Amino acid sequence: MRFPNKDTIERLRRDFPAGCRVELVQMDDPQAPPVGTRGTVIGVDDIGSIMVRWDNGSGLSVAWGEDHCRRIGND
6-72, superfamily in CATH? Predict the structure, then answer.
């Protein structure tokens, strides 16, 4: 598994600040919420995972380079 560099982490934190809303596009995990599930970003950790509190109660993070979400709303 590759890890993102410092610049990538900073960009992710800028693009996905705590409190912003996201929608799941793809997650390769058997426990993943369904595609289209929405949630609120808690933060971005030091390996680039976007930590999300999903509206369905899941707490799985969006793994950098593996999973995909998109920012929604006007926050």
Answer: SH3 Domains (2.30.30.40)
